[in-house]
Amino acid sequence: MFKETYNIIGVMSGTSLDGIDLAHIYFTIHDGKWQFKIHESETIPYPITWLNKLKVAVDFSEEELTQLNKNYTTYLATVIRSFIDRHAISELDAVCSHGHTILHQPQNSFTLQIGNLPLLGELLCEKIVCDFRVQDVQLGGQGAPLVPIGDRILFSDYTFCLNLGGFSNVSFEDNNQRIAFDISAVNTVLNFYANQLGLEYDDKGKISKSGKINLDLLSELNELDYYKKPFPKSLGFEFVKEIVLPLIDNYNIAIENKMHTFIEHIALQTAWALPQKQGQLLITGGGAYNDFLIERIQYHLSQLQVIIPERKILEYKEALIFALLGVLKLRSEINVLSSVTGAKMDHSSGTILN
């Protein structure tokens, strides 16, 4: 018999490099229905040294990546241990950690999330569930997005679940299948240009809003091949580095104009990605704090009710869902949907480190 309650820490580091999200969560299951409560939660910002490494790691050699993985695993263990000690958390069933994505090339049957080495379990002396994406890629899937099964289990009241992080992704039910895919880059691009202005990010989208749309750039962005592909499909930082940023930088226009144009691009792609324009749209992730972006999404989806949840769900939904994926793995239950990733079959993904 499986347990009915689970005491879990979920850990997530997203491509927007905001920091490491940690959430202490109690899960309960009764009559097949999951409930959750998020207790302590924190985002630990990256020190500048780690920020600089992670920004350029996509270009590292194999040897450099191996060393980076070891060093990051050690650093991640320190962050998690500090969180556990600071909040006096005990009797954990598991720490469920996504790690940090450095390379994501499902077309080459390859994805790399650092911080998932056995060393993590050795340093923490806790059961670890991690490395959720690799098996899916080996089964012919995109390895992403993985959150949609959590959307189905925990947030089924909403018509659409939209996450605005380093990239945006959406999930929804269609003919009793969960459909999900990455829509576009978001904070990976917006933060890049905010950094050029000496800022970590564009607070509430004020800088973007002060600019003007460049219609030629907007048209070129909307014509990118990725948007014409059918789902399942997913994006990695390579897409931003090799395609999006060079395209934008072909235009000799003010940074504010680049950002304003890209906000409109995100909003349009979001509207075009949804198969119906009515119902409830749950928006989470750091991009939900960008008032200008939300304003433009709402403008293009005027018949949808946009819902931004309370702070813990808004900021820690991905950590919450990777915690759930870990629990499902402990129970040997399906935690990745082939309808979402394109894998050969639904499966129970992840590695358990005792």
Question: Care to describe what's here?
Answer:
The chain is 40% helix and 25% strand. It is of the alpha/beta class. α6 runs antiparallel to α10, α8 packs across α10 and α10 crosses α11. The strands form 2 sheets. Strands 1, 2, 3, 4, 5, 6 and 12 form a 7-stranded mixed sheet that branches. A 5-stranded mixed sheet has the order 9-8-7-10-11. The mean pLDDT is 96. The longest helix is centred in the N-terminal third of the chain and has 25 residues.
Can you summarize this structure?
This protein is α/β, with parallel strands linked by helices and 354 residues long. It is 40% helix and 25% strand. It has helices spanning 48-56, 62-86, 119-124, 134-138, 148-154, 187-196, 206-210, 215-222, 237-249, 255-273, 291-300, 311-330, 338-341, and strands at residues 5-13, 20-30, 33-44, 94-105, 110-114, 128-130, 160-164, 167-174, 177-185, 279-284, 304-307, 351-353.
Low-confidence stretches: none
Instruction: Specify the structural class.
Output: alpha/beta
**What's the alpha carbon Rg, rounded to whole Å?**
19 Å
Proportion of strand residues = 15-25%
How much helix, percentage-wise, in residues? 25-40%
The secondary-structure element order is EEEHHEEHEHHEEEHHHHHEHEHHE
Major sheet size, sense and barrel closure: 7 strands, mixed
Shape: globular
What is the number of helices? 13
Write down how many β-strands occur, each being a DSSP E stretch of 2 or more residues.
12
Instruction: Name the average pLDDT.
Output: 96
Distance between the termini: 20 Å
